[in-house]
Fold:
Amino acid sequence: YEIMPSLVGSEMCIRDSAWPAIRSLTGSPSAAAGPSGGQTLGGLAAAALAAVAVLLVSVAGQRTLPAWPAWLVLGLVGLALSVRRLVPPRTWSGGRGLPSLIGSRALLMASFFAAEVYVPLVLVDQRGLSVGLAGAAISGTAFTWFAGATLVSRPERLPAPVGTPRPRALLGAGAILVGLLAVPLSLVAEVPVVAVATVWVVGGFGMGVLSSTSVTEVLRRSGPGEEAGHSAALQTSDSVAESVALALGGTVFAAAVVHGLDVGVLAASAVPAACVVAGLLVLGRGYER
Structure:
């Protein structure tokens, strides 16, 4: 129940923001030379290693394997080695321009998904809501995600303060940051569930704004023949960051939950908090030339 709003929002984001950018692209598929056979095999090998490493991080993060910390480190090392081949150089070290554009988006989106799993958990286990009601409480993100994507899909109609990509990206990131406050607020019994849901859908709005703005900017900056590679880099960095954030958050939660659900959730929320801070620190560099 927590995944579907995000999936719906993603589809709406692609339809309302990416298509206008795609239609504006010019050139023919033959304009750029394709990768050599060796490059293709190397990319496939790196993708396979990344998939295995993500799986290893996820399984080790459940703390059920013998010597799970060693397996977790091994998975993270495998990711670091393999993903470098799949994304532009300096994506994870704050390189100016396209690398930080891709990296900051991945970190900010990872913060949202890493926090999303704990809101319904708290609403069910501590607030006494049914699974259906808890899912309904957070499903509003599908609509606000759509609203955010629609808002930025026609930048020429926006007011001057958000008329350029960087302010729009900052608007999305700020809304995501607000949305993350739903996690600690859900633990406070005096805060009504409707208030928690309201704060959370603000984060959904930010996801729509940020994801649409970033994918459009990446396509706009892509030269002839680079669109597919940059789009693949976006999806790869997003998937890796989200998987690692979820796995690390789960590891922290499992270690801390023995002291109570509230302690476990607060400890685990440090992971999305770190992701959003890191994303904000490099976001501006992504929109520099």
Remarks:
- The first helix runs from residue 4 to 23.
- Residues 95 and 252 are 29 Å apart (CA to CA).
